Amino acid sequence: MRNIRIVSESLEPFIDRQQAGRLLGWEFHSLRRAGVVVLSCPGPDMVVAGELARVLGADLDVVLARKLRAPSDDAVALGVVLEDGDVILDSSAVEELGVPGSYIAVERELQAREIVRQTSRLRRTRHKIPLRGRTVILTGESVTTGGSMLAALSAVRQESPKTMLAGIPVGPREAVDRVGRHADSTVCLKSPLRMLPPEQLYVHRDIVDEEQILAILGEQQRGDGRTQVKKPKMRLPARYLLRHAFARCFL
Asked: Which three-class secondary structure state does DSSP give residue 3?
């Protein structure tokens, strides 16, 4: 197994995705101003990635690959559709689950259409950053099974980066280990023995639309706010701990 580091087994949620990105930035601080590219999938993951890139003074881009979902469990990946339309199929998963070719063809077309839609929106103001020979950090707001991050790592690997790193705010150890087997090095901030439901991992979980993603990408392209002055705090302020404890006990 490759290098995997778990920072904490704490059950405390993050205040928000920005805090998670800042904490990851501290863990990767040796790469500050080192020409790194930070990547994530579209959606809430981009908030974490944007903050991480800001802390590191790194380039920021979005991975538009989509996983091919298994018919019995859409968290399981049968492969990945790349941004250019090519497909990487996990033949062992397909064979193990007995997935027919007709299903894969329909799922491939569905995901390819979504990639085309996302590309038309998210690539309209900037071109894709070439990854050949670069050090990249793939991140997101959390992992559950690791399927989506594994699909993204597979897509990134096709572009021949120098080093592929994974930065995970929170996830179960099994999923972190799965990701870690495919990245050169992995950092996970929190991997509690008992995972909380997704809605309890962050105190504030705002909806992130494509206009916000474009704003995050545009801000990083301009180089706004690339500063890091001191190590951020891992623990929550007391008011957030009390609110979280109340929610777990009574809601």
From this structure: strand
Q: 147, 136, 141: which is closest to 175 by C-alpha?
A: 147
Average pLDDT over residues 35-40: 96
Q: Out of 37-46, 170-179, 215-224, 241-250, which region has the weakest mean confidence (pLDDT)?
A: 241-250
Sequence spans of domains, the chain? 3-62+128-250, 65-122
**Eight-state DSSP code of residue 186:** E
At the topology level of CATH, where does 65-122 sit?
A: Ybab; Chain: A; (3.30.1310)
- How many residues belong to the chain? 251
Establish whether domains 3-62+128-250 and 65-122 are of one fold: no
Model confidence, pTM:
0.86
CA atoms 146, 148, 154, 158: torsion sign: negative
- pLDDT-derived band at 212, boundaries 50, 70, 90: very high
Would you say domain 3-62+128-250 falls under CATH 2.60.120.260? no
Handedness of CA 19, 206, 61, 171 (dihedral sign): positive
